[in-house]
């Protein structure tokens, strides 16, 4: 039973990582990166590393995608103001 859960979690990690690489829009990549962080947290918990899973949940699924989204927003806003000034 535990082996099947590990295999499913590994497949979900592979699928979400591939989706994050395949997408072109940085905002969508950040959302998929958040999903990847959640799936990795589940995988770490299944592999009996709950402390690593909790850290991954906080950093990988919340903090990093948030910083990426804020950076993308600031860059897009800065690009709009430069286009409007010309």
Structural write-up:
By secondary structure, the chain is an all-alpha fold. The protein contains three helices and no strands. Helix 1 (2-22) runs antiparallel to helix 2 (26-46) and helix 2 (26-46) runs antiparallel to helix 3. The chain is elongated and about 60 Å long. The N and C termini lie far apart (63 Å). The model has no long low-confidence stretch (mean pLDDT 91).
In short:
The chain has helices at residues 2-22, 26-46, 50-85. The protein is mainly alpha-helical and 86 residues long.
The count of helical stretches stands at 3
User: Radius of gyration over alpha carbons?
Assistant: 17 Å
Morphology: elongated
Proportion of helical residues:
over 70%
- Listing every helix as H and every strand as E from the N terminus to the C terminus, the arrangement reads HHH
User: Ends: how far apart?
Assistant: 63 Å
| Low-pLDDT runs | none
Q: Which structural class is indicated by helix and strand composition?
A: mainly alpha
């Amino acid at each position: 039973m535990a082996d099947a859960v590990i295999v499913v979690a590994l497949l979900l990690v592979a699928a979400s990582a591939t989706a994050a690489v395949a997408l072109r829009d940085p905002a969508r990549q950040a959302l998929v990166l958040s999903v990847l962080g959640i799936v990795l947290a589940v995988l770490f918990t299944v592999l009996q590393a709950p402390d690593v899973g909790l850290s991954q949940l906080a950093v990988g699924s919340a903090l990093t995608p948030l910083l990426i989204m804020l950076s993308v927003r600031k860059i897009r806003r800065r690009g709009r103001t430069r286009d409007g000034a010309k």
